[in-house]
Amino acid sequence: MSLADLQPLMLGLILACAALLVLLVDLVIKPSGKPILGWLTAAILAGTLVASWLLPLEGEVQAGVWQGNLWSTFLARVMISAGLLAVLGGLDYVARVWPYRQGEFYTLLLFSLTGMVLLPGCRELAAFVVCFELMGIPIYVLAAYSKNDNGKKPPEAALKLLLIGAASTALTFFGAALLVGMAGSSRFAELVPYEPGPLHAVAALLLLAGMAFKIGVAPFHMWVPDTYEGSPTPVVAFLSVAPKVAGFAALSSIFLIAMPTLAHAWRPMLWLLVVVTMVVGNLVAIPQTNLKRLMAFSGVAQVGYILLGFLGGAEFGAAMMLFYLATYVFANIGMFLIVHAVAEAGEGEDIVSLNGLARRSPWLALALLMFLLSLAGIPFVAGFWAKFYVFTAAWRAGHGEMVLLGALFATVALFYYLGVARAAFVNKSAIEGPVPVKRPLALAIVVCLLGTVGLGAWPNPLVEAALAAVQGLY
Amino acid sequence: MTAIPLAHLLILAAALFTLGMIGVMTRRNVLVMLMSVEIMLNAVNLTLVAFSRYHGWTEGHVLAFFIIAVAAAEAAVGLAMVLAVFRLKQTVYVDELKLLKR
Q1: ipTM above 0.85, yes or no
Q2: What pTM was estimated for this model as a whole?
Q3: Which residue of A68, A109, A213, A377 shows the fewest CB atoms closer than 10 Å?
């Protein structure tokens, strides 16, 4: 094997080298110069994103253990964008709150991204195990960074994330080990025979339960609100989307490639999870007063819609899942960054802290409105097309009742999303003067806004890219 | 020496896995919860190794090594967090930690 054979893995290799580079620069740089590490990370991520169009990333590694194609590249772009936006949004915060630990922060983020970027291309279980955990373990550490109060707050939320994450990983691995053992091969394509037995179905359900924890499907979502509330907001912006995108990539590659013959076992279970997720996510979001908890339950509800795409028909459904994920990245990170900006101004993280935002910072309020409309699926921002296409996919697959349920709960969701908008636009606030927003954070919010509005106006290029990307999965 | 049948090993692995899962869900000491997760992961390894020996095939052994490495990393991070929590709260019991209780 020569180095040239590793060409399809290039994006992952760049990110892994970047992580080591940041760690090395951190060693030699003076404490006062450490904010440069954040800019370095942002520059590398932007460069990697550009490189994903320039480098040839197609091809197989190690006779099909890893497959580089439009599918893996599309997902890598979405995840790298999420990383870039989160890094930009958190730049000043990281430099201010953890001045001596910036190097580790960005190194961990880059390592986690390495795992995520390599995950969609895995077609073999050993590679999958390594990528899955390379993604997961740094996230536990990132979530453990304490919020503003200088390490005086114990990382309880992160410990909860770790315990639940580790147990769910064990579930996934146990299911996988049973399948590997029975098949005598760790390749996805050879994992499940044409006529699977009952033990295969049990293994599939174990795998499904483990994955459900990772993507935060109800009733496996109990870590989501606590972790979102307890962890620093820029970290939450990252971990609310990027691992979810990777989780859906893993779900697709395992269940669609390895287990089509077991569909009778996992499909009904997944449909049940979609119903529970939509009901729990949307109804529990209504009484929330903390913005991050509200966003956590809204995120749970959104996963229900994304799963609708996953389940709704083969290629079209999977493509619309990709489109949904891409629009979700912009709207959700944008939302968290605005929460972050307002909290940084000393207003706290409750819905009431948005009071009077329209009067104080009209542009920020406008961006907030766009993100909320996109999450709610109102025409004509990005989220509308995402919901519309996902519903179309489910409808075409003959699941009219699920479309009805989805539409019903989209109206429920409108209620709490507009509740947040009302705080910003109708409620009065005693505080005057604009919310101060640092430049990199403003840049990240603007990019999210442009993405949300732009994809609402011209969804077609991304839809076509997603349709092309799905060809790589099969 | 007669070989232990595959079914026995698998039943043992399943029993260990179940014990680990019960441990994670019912124990109140975070350290014991982490140990239970390790038991779950070791049940996975036992499954892999048992199947590998039965098939006379090495891939399962290799996969078990990967999982051992991953489990070690997870335990390291987990213990570090328990330590961080203990320094500030002087406890490792989830009943005394408000977030973990729910």
Answers
A1: yes
A2: 0.94
A3: A213
